[in-house]
Amino acid sequence: MSGDVLSQNEIDALLSALSTGEMSAEEMKKEEETRKVRVYDFKRALRFSKDQIRSLTRIHENFARLLTTYFSAQLRTYVQINVVSVDQIPFEEFISSIPNMTLINIFDVSPLEGNILMEVNPNVAYSMLERLMGGFGSSSGKVDNMTEIETKILTNLFERSFDSLREAWSGLIEIDPYLAEMEVNPQFLQMISPNETVVVISFNIVIGESSGMINMCIPHIALEPIIPNLSVSYWMQTNKKEPTPEQSILLERRIKKATLPVVADLGKGEISIEDFLYLQMGDVISLDTKIEDPLVIRVGETPKFTAQPGKLRNRMAVQILDTLKTGGDEDDE
């Protein structure tokens, strides 16, 4: 038997062995305890929990959606980007997994320490370059002989693409990424120790009829200050930001200028449908209030004041007598 999930035949075999005495419950318990021991490779130190990996996956799925919109606009063609995998591996293993000649963008992500790598498959890079130059997006993949003009065009494209990373990371930390260097040979990269743990986010990108991979490599040293922010509790809590004094003053001014409907209720009355159908000008409807009773003033739909009717400069008006106390009002109102 292999794996944690047993098939129906394996379950039947175990039950049969127990019932016939071929295997005892104690033997099964010892076998289960033995299976709990796992080999741990210290060269592949797992420094991120599954919870933190899920948070990074969620962040970069949003990054993929933003990149899809950005590249579609810049390349003027159908572009689709999806997160394929998120793994933590040694930096040496990442370097050995990418082609000898590829396009590597090295970004500084201040205020975090270290750099982030974005490795772009040659097929993808040249497909983008041809689209920007007015072609159909086919790829030659000859990264080793890029001209200065081609390098500058791609540099501008990827520099602006990291605005999407800034937005995707905004809920985690405010970063200011900029392109520090562009390299084509991964063997020249000496960023961190070969055994340093890195998180590699792999994206599949489709540009028209061309497709390829984009890999982002984030060293542990860069994420270390914000690792606590990758927990579920951090994402579930509400981040309440106190307004600045200037924002409070502006908000107060706008509230003071807001308009509210104010209605004086003269009273209520009831009539039958038949009487309503025969109403004519000059008819009188009896109300349920007396002439000496104060009127109720409603602000919006809420009764707020009592008042007496009158006139002011030959116009109908009311004079406020008192404030009505309701369940939602403060005591010091």
UniProtKB/TrEMBL annotation:
Lineage of the species this protein comes from: Bacteria, Bacillati, Bacillota, Bacilli, Bacillales
* Any one GO CC term of the record: plasma membrane
Q: How does it sit in the membrane?
A: Peripheral membrane protein
Spell out the Pfam families in the cross-references. FliM (PF02154), FliMN_C (PF01052)
Record-annotated Flagellar motor switch protein FliN-like C-terminal domain positions: 254-323
The entry sums up its family as follows:
Belongs to the FliM family.
Q: Tell me what organism the protein belongs to.
A: Sporosarcina newyorkensis
Question: Which keywords belong to this entry?
Answer: Bacterial flagellum, Cell membrane, Cell projection, Chemotaxis, Cilium, Flagellar rotation, Flagellum, Membrane
Give the GO molecular function terms: cytoskeletal motor activity
Q: An example of a Gene Ontology BP annotation on this entry?
A: positive chemotaxis
Source domain of life: Bacteria
This protein is called Flagellar motor switch protein FliM
Q: Does the keyword DNA damage apply?
A: no
List locations, semicolon-separated.
Bacterial flagellum basal body; Cell membrane
Q: What InterPro entries does the annotation carry? A: CheC-like_sf (IPR028976), Flag_FliM (IPR001689), FliN-like_C (IPR001543), SpoA-like_sf (IPR036429)
Where is this protein primarily located?
other
